[in-house]
Write a structure and sequence with these properties.
Layout lengths: L10 E6 L8 E5 L2 E7 L5 E5 L13 E3 L2 E3 L6 E2 L5 E3 L17 E4 L2 E5 L23 E4 L3 E3 L3 H8 L5 H4 L8 H4 L3 E5 L2 E11 L3 H4 L8 E10 L3 E10 L14 E13 L2 E10 L6 H30 L12 H18 L1
Antiparallel strand pairs: 1-10, 2-3, 3-4, 5-6, 6-7, 7-8, 9-10, 11-18, 12-18, 13-14, 14-15, 15-16, 16-17, 17-18
Helix pairs in contact: 1-6
C-alpha cells in the first residue's frame, strides 16, 4: 500500500496537557523533533529541537526565564525561536533562529500546527460538541504507541466489520459480521455506518445500557482528514432505533474520540477518550470503561503492528474488499490533498 506521506497544514495532537511541564521535553510529530515546555505562566511553547550551531537538541539544554539555553555552547532562544544570546560574541547571526510551531490547548490535549504558521487557525481544531457539557460523562486512558503507519489506523476505524473478529468478547456480535455498510463523503472526511436492528447488545455495552432485551444498534465511524476520528455507538430499545427516528429516553450513546499522531512513517501515537450519556458522575464506571476500552485497543494494537510487518515484507501487494470502500476513498482524497500541498 502506497506511503503517501503527511499533510502538514493541519492540527495534530502533540501530547496530553499534563505531559508538558516546565521541563524541556522532545516530542516527535511528522518526523519533526520538537522541543516543548511550559513558560512560568503556563503557556506551552514548541520549538524546532535543533540548535542552529551544531544541531544539538535544545531539549538537552536548560530552561530559565522562559528561555532555552543550548547545552553545547550556550546559545539562548526566546519563545519565538529567535536567538537572543551568543556567548563570546556581541553579534547574533541572522540564521541563529529555530522554527516555532503554533500551539493551542483544548480538551486537555495540546494541539500543534505542523505547516505554514500563517495558515494556523484555532477555529479549525477538531470540534467536540458535548465536551464539558452537563449530561455527559468522560473517561480517558493513556496514550498508546503503535508500530504502524497512521493510515492503517484510519483504515481500521473506517471498517466497522473488524469488530466481529478482533473484538469478539467486547464490541463484536453476530450482526457485525454481515450487516451491510453505508459509506458517505463528509466535507472533511469519510463516514461509514450501519444500523443493526433487534439484536442483543454486544458484551461491552450490555452492562451499560439501561433497558432490558434486544436493541437497535448504530455503528457510526467517521474519520476527518488527516487522521482524527469519531466512533459513535448508539443503542436504543428494539423498535426505537434507525435513521431519522427520535431518540428514546433510554437510548445509550458513547462517542469515542480517537486522535492519531504520526510520529514517523512506521510509528503512531494514539490519544483517545469517550463521552457517554449515562451515569455521568460515576467515577467507578469511568474507570471500568477506561480499562475495558484499553483492553479493546490493545487487541487493535497487536493486529496493526502485525499488519505493518506483513505489508513491509509482502511479496505481492495487499488486496481490497468491498468492506474497504471507505478506507480507499479516504486514502485517495488525502493523497490528493497532500499532493496539492506539496505542489
Amino acid at each position: 500500500m502506497e506511503d503517501i506521506g503527511f499533510l502538514r497544514n493541519a492540527w495534530y495532537v502533540a501530547a496530553w496537557s499534563h505531559e508538558i511541564t516546565t521541563d524541556l521535553r522532545q516530542v516527535v510529530v511528522l518526523e519533526d523533533k520538537i522541543c516543548m515546555f511550559r513558560t512560568d505562566d503556563g503557556r506551552v511553547v514548541a520549538l524546532e529541537d535543533a540548535c542552529p550551531h551544531r544541531k544539538l537538541p535544545l531539549s538537552m539544554g536548560r530552561r530559565f526565564d522562559d528561555h532555552v539555553e543550548c547545552g553545547y555552547h550556550g546559545l539562548t532562544f526566546d519563545c519565538s525561536g529567535q536567538c537572543v544570546k551568543v556567548p563570546g560574541s556581541k553579534r547574533i547571526p541572522p540564521q541563529a533562529k529555530v522554527h516555532a510551531y503554533p500551539i493551542e490547548e483544548r480538551y486537555q490535549l495540546i494541539w500543534i500546527w505542523m505547516g505554514d504558521p500563517d495558515k494556523a487557525d484555532p477555529a479549525t481544531i477538531y470540534p467536540i460538541d458535548n465536551y464539558g457539557k452537563p449530561g455527559w460523562g468522560v473517561n480517558r486512558g493513556p496514550m498508546i504507541e503503535i508500530d504502524a503507519n497512521y493510515l492503517h489506523l484510519t483504515d481500521n476505524l473506517l471498517d466497522p466489520s473488524h469488530v466481529a473478529w478482533v473484538h469478539q468478547g467486547s464490541f463484536g456480535q453476530a450482526a457485525t459480521e454481515d450487516t451491510p455498510l453505508k459509506t458517505d463523503a463528509m466535507d472533511d472526511g469519510i463516514k461509514v455506518w450501519r444500523w443493526m436492528m433487534d439484536v442483543e447488545p454486544a458484551p461491552f455495552y450490555a452492562k451499560l445500557v439501561e433497558f432490558e432485551g434486544n436493541c437497535d444498534r448504530l455503528q457510526h465511524y467517521e474519520v476527518s482528514y488527516p487522521c482524527l476520528a469519531l466512533a459513535k455507538a448508539v443503542f436504543s430499545p428494539a423498535g426505537h432505533g434507525g435513521p431519522d427516528k427520535p431518540l428514546h429516553d433510554k437510548t445509550f450513546i458513547m462517542d469515542s474520540y480517537n486522535f492519531f499522531t504520526p510520529e514517523t512513517r512506521g510509528k503512531t501515537r494514539y490519544y483517545w477518550f469517550q463521552l457517554r450519556n449515562v451515569r455521568v458522575d460515576d467515577d467507578a464506571l469511568s474507570a471500568e470503561m477506561t480499562k475495558g476500552i484499553r483492553d479493546v485497543f490493545e487487541e487493535d494494537r497487536i493486529i496493526l503492528n502485525e499488519i505493518q510487518k506483513g505489508i513491509d515484507n509482502a511479496r505481492v501487494p495487499p488486496i481490497n474488499l468491498p468492506i474497504d470502500g471507505g478506507a480507499v476513498r479516504f486514502r485517495t482524497e488525502l493523497k490528493r490533498m497532500i499532493d496539492a500541498e506539496a505542489a
